[in-house]
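Input structure tokens:
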């Protein structure tokens, strides 16, 4: 059965927009997208969602705020919740401050828990929750200690939620992507090195695209993935396999 009501956090650009559009093209009736502050990008994404056949809903604000959580509850029963929104301070571990830790962990990991608390009580049997992770959850990347730690916490939360929500008929999983050329990479001082490594070292012969991740998310929310619970599916073209 095609999910009819979907929420994608961080859905106005990049990977999140690709996911939102995938659900719209697959027959969703309503696709809500969460975004922080870029109204023009969100409105442009909404027009693409409408053109793809779904009714867009914009949810503006910090994904971990009480106001946004109230708006999520007001959306009514969701068939799919995708937590894609991510942020973080990119710097060496010895330069991390408490405020950097709180900001990154709250937005990337804690928000999955609070969003689920807001959405799950209304979700129908057969609903799906999918979180977007990254290879930094298990591998060390330069200046990535905060984001990597937050993604490791995210994957742990996915496992616990998968067990706790299984009796309600709700699936919980994660998709972990390789390097994807989106605006998020602009925050990395070694952006070009990361892109070159992804291009040259990926066994599949090309970089991962936002649509590749959107396809994995759509699969996890479909009937063929009914018995996949609490898993992190890596979509990296084999990048993480060679020693």
């Amino acid at each position: 059965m095609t999910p009819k009501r979907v929420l994608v956090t961080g859905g106005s650009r990049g990977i999140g927009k690709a996911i939102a559009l995938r659900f719209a093209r697959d027959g969703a009736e309503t696709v809500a997208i969460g975004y922080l502050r870029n109204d023009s990008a969100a409105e442009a994404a909404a027009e693409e969602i409408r053109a793809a056949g779904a009714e867009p809903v914009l949810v503006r604000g910090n994904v971990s705020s009480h106001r946004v959580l109230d708006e999520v509850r007001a959306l009514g029963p969701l068939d799919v919740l995708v937590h894609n929104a991510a942020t973080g301070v990119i710097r060496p571990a010895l330069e991390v401050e408490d405020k950097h830790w709180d900001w990154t962990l709250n937005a990337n990991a804690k928000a999955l828990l609070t969003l689920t608390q807001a959405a799950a009580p209304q979700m129908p049997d057969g609903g799906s929750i999918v979180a977007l992770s990254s290879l930094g959850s298990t591998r060390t990347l330069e200046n990535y200690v905060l984001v990597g730690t937050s993604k490791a916490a995210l994957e742990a939360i996915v496992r616990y939620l998968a067990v706790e929500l299984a009796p309600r008929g709700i699936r919980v999983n994660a998709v972990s992507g390789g390097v994807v050329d989106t605006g998020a990479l602009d925050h990395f001082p070694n952006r070009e090195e990361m892109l070159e490594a992804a291009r040259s070292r990926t066994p599949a012969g090309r970089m991962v695209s936002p649509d590749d991740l959107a396809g994995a998310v759509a699969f996890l929310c479909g009937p063929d993935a009914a018995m996949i619970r609490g898993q992190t599916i890596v979509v990296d073209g084999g990048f993480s396999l060679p020693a």
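The chain is about 40% helix and 15% strand. The CA atoms of residues 90 and 188 lie 7 Å apart.
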